């Protein structure tokens, strides 16, 4: 009967779930720190408000959120930066890889290695970026202006096709 205790099974399951939660919290913390560089007030910084909202959805403790915001204002800590790498994958598939790192050169070399192992290669920045639609993040006031513009365009003849192709990621601060 050794190795069949209920506590042993619970301990192993808890260890796995804690590890997964820790990875999620680390990723969210990096996003909060990166967003907090534009301003530490979530009311005036839409990207920070979205990152904090995501952290709350994942049940991240408030202490961790505040620590991540504080980390952005420190000068001694590791400076996180956002990178975008464009690549062509197998079969000519366009890839746009976004990441947050504290060491840009190391991360890019790791991405190159993974791409070369999977028959893909990096391309010059901007060469395939035009293929991707980056959603806009807008506040409530801007969203109202966009809605008025779309209503005015909708009244015109022949503009319905253009409106159906516009895509916005509506995220507003409450």
Number of domains: 3
Helical content (DSSP H or I, runs of 4+)? 40-55%
CATH homologous superfamily name of the largest domain?
Answer: Integrase, N-terminal zinc-binding domain
Assigned CATH class of the largest domain? Mainly Alpha
Distance between the termini: 57 Å
CATH topology of the largest domain: Arc Repressor Mutant, subunit A
Which sequence of SSEs, written as H and E, runs from N to C? HHHEEHEHH
Largest sheet: 3 strands, antiparallel
Radius of gyration (CA) equals 22 Å
CATH architecture of the largest domain: Orthogonal Bundle
Number of helices: 6
How many β-strand stretches?
3
Helix and strand topology:
Layout: H1 6-36, H2 46-57, H3 62-73, E1 81-88, E2 94-101, H4 104-117, E3 121-122, H5 140-155, H6 160-165
Antiparallel strand pairs: 1-2, 1-3
Overview of this protein structure:
The protein is mainly alpha-helical and 174 residues long. The chain has three domains: 6-73, Orthogonal Bundle (Arc Repressor Mutant, subunit A), CATH 1.10.10; 81-131, YebC, transcriptional regulation domain (Alpha-Beta Plaits); 133-174, no CATH class. It has helices at residues 6-36, 46-57, 62-73, 104-117, 140-155, 160-165, and strands at residues 81-88, 94-101, 121-122. Residues 158-174 have low confidence and may be disordered.
């Amino acid at each position: 009967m050794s190795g069949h205790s209920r506590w042993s099974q619970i301990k192993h399951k808890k260890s796995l779930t804690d590890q997964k939660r820790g990875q999620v919290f680390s990723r969210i913390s990096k996003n909060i720190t990166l967003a907090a560089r534009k301003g530490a007030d979530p009311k005036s910084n839409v990207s920070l408000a979205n990152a904090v909202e995501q952290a709350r959805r994942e049940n991240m403790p408030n202490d961790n959120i505040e620590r991540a915001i504080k980390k952005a204002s420190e000068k001694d800590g590791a400076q996180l930066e956002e990178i975008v790498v464009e690549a062509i994958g197998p079969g000519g598939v366009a890839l746009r890889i976004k990441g947050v790192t504290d060491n840009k050169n190391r991360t890019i070399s790791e991405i190159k290695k993974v791409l070369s192992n999977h028959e893909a290669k990096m391309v010059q920045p901007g060469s395939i970026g035009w293929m991707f639609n980056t959603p806009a993040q807008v506040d409530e006031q801007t969203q109202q202006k966009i809605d008025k513009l779309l209503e005015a365009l909708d009244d015109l003849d022949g503009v319905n096709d253009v409106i159906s192709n516009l895509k916005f990621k509506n995220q507003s601060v409450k």
